[in-house]
Amino acid sequence: MNLKTHNFPFSIILSASLPSTRLRASNYQLSLINYQLPSLMKAKRKVAELLEAGCEHKKDHKKGKNKACKHQAKPGAAQGGCAFDGASIALVPITDAAHFVHGPIACSGNSWNSRGSLSSGPMTYKMGFTTDLSENDIIFGGEKKLYKGISQVIKRYDPPAIFVYSTCVPALIGDDIDAVCEAATKKWNTPVIPVHSPGFVGTKNIGNKLGGEALLDHVVGTREPEYTTPFDINLIGEYNIAGELWGVLPLLEKVGIRVLSKITGDARYEEICYAHRAKLNVMICSKALINMAQKMEKNYGIPYIEESLYGIADVNNLLRHVANHFGDPDLKERVEKLIAEETAALDIALEPYRQRLKDKRVVLYTGGVKSWSIISAAQDLGIKVVATSTKKSTEEDKARIKKLLGQDGLTLSKGSAPELLRVIEKTNADMLIAGGRNQYTALKARIPFLDINQERHHPYAGYVGMIEMAKELDEALHSPIWKQVRLPAPWEEYPSNYSPIPNYPSPVKPQFVVGLQP
After folding, report:
1. How far is it, in rounded angstroms, from Cα 17 to Cα 138?
2. SS3 (DSSP) at 108
3. What is the distance, to the nearest Å, from the Cα of residue 182 to the centroid of all Cα atoms in its chain?
4. Is the Cβ–Cβ distance between 453 and 336 less than 8 Å?
5. What is the DSSP secondary-structure string of 61-81?
6. Which positions ≥6 away from 223 have C-beta within 8 Å?
7. Is residue 243 pLDDT above 60, yes or no?
8. Residues forming a β-bridge with 450
């Protein structure tokens, strides 16, 4: 579909050509878009379906639908990350694939250092591929440019697959990326997968699910594994941030549980193709990719459970619940033996940290499974979580949070800087654990900060991750810098009538008074 074949309002063309401004359209213009772009209508229905799946899983539908699921996104709802951002978060950890952004170059961002997902092999996922749409492309269409770009990537890098992400601009001008991807797949015999994730369709969480839909529609079930075992599982919703999976996979391998597919941390394209042959899906974050678990259960009969990788108790539960699902006595025995060995060694390693961290009070502001799983990990270290967020949590997550925090714990539905500062002061917190963008809030409050989200550089999952988390918490809390920054500033100790002139009895040594002669 090309822009010049359609009678689009010029205001839409103009707004789309200005990357520095937020795209706006009147109700009349939006109705025109809905009429002229069936793909957007399809995306709208898909988003409504994903909203319902994310909010209502495991709930009794007879009691009525959750009305909040039907609410349209409000302006500014994607401030913490748009749908395109969410889709790339879910899919970019497929390390041997090429990830091609169809849109202005600003949408690509820093492809090398934007997230901490690590790879044990291929580094193609770190390359930044984009069509870099210009104003001319907005007027005349960007399909030819996209096709040419796909050709260049295949000829130069020969990836096993290419994911093509639609962003706001090509979605508004009507580029048919499905047709381009289909033509490119037939031409070069390389899977070219469209990902319909324009930022304006919703938040980062919707983008996660849209990425999962792309895998379900075009990848899962397209190949067969060389062999299967009785204990094959998929890990869904874990992205190997800072290499966290590498602390968990050896535990599963020791007891004989095989991870058939990782969706998508440190994954290879081929392993996701045969993910439909697993016997169990282990959800690490239901808020992100619950739609994949639901549809794989419906289409392939694969049951799913939700687990956490953080904290001693939760890692133990992960191993036990997987073993209980398979019901094999030998597997259960191996799991119990591993748990006993690992927890005994871990207790010895954590004892010095527990003495230093005992009764420290922290405010936790993160999302999804971490909103409750990190509480469990902190309590294992003797730390008291006095408040946590529920903004990106499911109803099941909120129930776990309430149980873990107790009656005195606070829950935050919004986490603006003023609100976080108010909660920190109210709870007399010693530390803020949150995402990277909140570190300056902690600095204003003059309390330590620990990054828990995707920008972090330290793995906190599994037994070995508990030691790393304890070490980072200890170093942050007991850094000597906090004693310094909490002291009054030198100028706050001066007399109110102090003036930097010669012969004035200065309260500081003369060499510290800049510009004065001895």
Report:
1. 7
2. coil
3. 29
4. no
5. GGG---GGGGPPPPTTTTTT-
6. 270, 273, 274
7. yes
8. 433
Distance CA 221, CA 236 (A): 16
Identify the three-state secondary structure at position 303. Answer: coil
pLDDT at site 27: 42
Match 């792309």 to its residue by tokens: 214
Instruction: Specify the amino acid at residue 271.
Output: E
Give the pLDDT confidence score for residue 438 in this predicted structure.
86
How far apart CA 170 and CA 138 sit, in angstroms, is: 8
How long, in residues, is the chain? Answer: 518
* Token duo for residue 17: 């050509």
Could you tell me which of 225, 271, 258 has the C-alpha nearest to residue 95?
271
Helices and strands (H and E) in the chain: how many: 20, 13
CA distance 475 to 424: 20
DSSP 514: T
Q: Which of helix, strand or coil describes residue 130? A: strand
Cis peptide before 130 (omega within 30 of 0): no
DSSP state of 487: S
List the Cα angle 169/175/181 in 5-degree steps: 120
CA atoms of 118 and 331, how far apart (whole Å): 30
Cα(233)–Cα(278) distance, rounded to whole angstroms?
5
Of residues 215, 214, 167, 162, the one with CA closest to residue 190: 162
Whole-number CA gyration radius for the chain: 26
Copy the structure tokens of residue 311: 């904290």
Sequence-ordered list of residues with C-beta below 8 angstroms from that of 412, at least 6 positions apart, any chain: 365, 387, 388, 389, 390, 391, 419, 420, 423
Tokens at 76, concatenated: 């500014």
> For residue 194, which of 158, 224, 221, 170 has the smallest C-alpha distance?
170
- How far is the C-alpha of 373 from the C-alpha of 308, rounded, in Å? 6
Preceding amide of 264 cis, omega within 30 = yes
Describe the crossing of helices 370-380 and 312-326 by its angle, rounded to 10 degrees.
120
Mean model confidence pLDDT for the chain: 82
Q: Phi and psi (nearest 5°) for 497?
A: -95, 15
Say how far apart CA 218 and CA 192 lie, in whole Å.
9
164 and 88 Cβ atoms separated by less than 8 Å: no
162 DSSP β-pair partners: 98, 192
HSE value, Cβ hemisphere, 13 Å, CA-based, for 234: 28
What is the per-residue DSSP string for 40-55?
A: HHHHHHHHHHHHHHHH
Q: What is the Cα–Cα distance from 518 to 513, expressed in whole angstroms? A: 10
Six token digits for residue 43: 């995306």
pLDDT digits (tens, 9 = 90+) for 247-265: 999 999 999 999 999 999 9
